[in-house]
């Protein structure tokens, strides 16, 4: 398990942007968790969900400057690996099918556009390493970036491609 190189401080971006699926609770993406006090932290921190305990954004792991803390730059970076039992990650025509992607989650509406130059620098750097990059806005469709024959290309995709919605359906069907 990776070790955090930083502390969250007052950042609560991970309590908002990704989807959270546990046996006890479902939180859709882009919505504050019911246990979050934005800018202050989790009201059940000592007993928070296992999924929350395990999650570490790339900033916590040492990526970026202090100003790129998610609550300051208004986007959050998170690497995801495709679940082999879930749906496949999308792929652009002519690109390789990859199992890992960097998700760049929008924390505040418009941040992906407002920080466009830096977001694209990160996108080009990571995609250049053979990793798919997804820009995931709070509203609308995600944008997938991959290098195809040496050219960075993009395409709009469904934001829930990585299976979270399928996991939610499995949990709901187990209860019913």
Could you explain the architecture of this structure?
By secondary structure, this protein is an alpha+beta fold. It has one domain. It is built from five helices and nine strands. A hairpin with a 4-residue loop joins strand 1 and strand 2. The chain is globular. The termini are far apart. The C terminus is likely disordered.
- DSSP, total strands: 9
Strand content: 15-25%
Helix share, percent: 10-25%
In this structure, how is the largest beta sheet organized? 5 strands, mixed
Query: Gyration radius, to the nearest Å?
Result: 16 Å
Number of domains: 1
Which shape, going by the Cα principal axes?
globular
Question: Which secondary structure elements does this structure contain, and how are they paired or packed?
Answer:
Layout: E1 20-21, E2 26-27, E3 36-37, E4 41-42, H1 50-54, H2 70-73, E5 75-81, E6 100-106, H3 111-114, H4 116-127, E7 132-136, E8 142-148, E9 151-157, H5 164-175
Parallel strand pairs: 6-7
Antiparallel strand pairs: 1-2, 3-4, 5-6, 7-8, 8-9
